[in-house]
Amino acid sequence: MAPEKPAREPSSGVQSLQRAFNLLERLADVGGEASLSELAAASGLPLPTIHRLIRTLVTLGYVRQNTNRRYALGARLIRLGETASRQFGTWARPLLAELVDEVGETANLAVLESDEVVYVAQVPSRHSMRMFTEVGRRVLPHGTGVGKAILSRLPVDDVRALLARTGMPAFTPNTITDPEELIRQLRRIAEQGYALDESEQELGVRCVAVPLDGGPTLAAVSVSGPQGRLTKQAVSRIVPVVRRIADQLSQQAAHPMTA
Question: What is the pTM for the complete model shown?
């Protein structure tokens, strides 16, 4: 991801709120614990601003200070995270479980949020060797099946603007790092209705992803597994199943009160 530009001093309460949430996300990105200086380096904010925001978050219970004087995510966030997870899981997990039952591999639901793909629901496969992407993980869209499926629904100019903001780092030798090559692939994805991740995020892993239609946010459902099991022959069998589940998830996302 491109380095964040240094932030200016807050001019409103809304900007302070944005910065506070930014600090929480930075803490999550580094494993849940960091010093003030590390947060300053990661966020581009001045130390006095970070100190003021962190002290407020500590008072509210969303951040805690450890005995080593480093700051960590607070226990009060657990309730928020669990509630958000249940919100998505309540309507998505039964269909993801159905997908796992039919194809035998891990199923995920992901959404596009602030230029990143966020995994919001998952049902793991029953294999001892399985793909596991934790719920809440944030990744750049160009190197994932769900990300490419989602990007295929955006206008080309919007895709180019997003890629200019995030950059296109290589996660493996197979990651697409050229914007025009990715855009050509996105056109094919839009025509065929599904995307493949061919070891672009993690070596040895193949992913089949289908975008959702009609929901309140851009989203995609995927199946992922080792290439040895998720062979190209298996993909041809799996794609129609993922499409069917994506259609059902789309209907539920568009009409959550009747799902």
Answer: 0.69
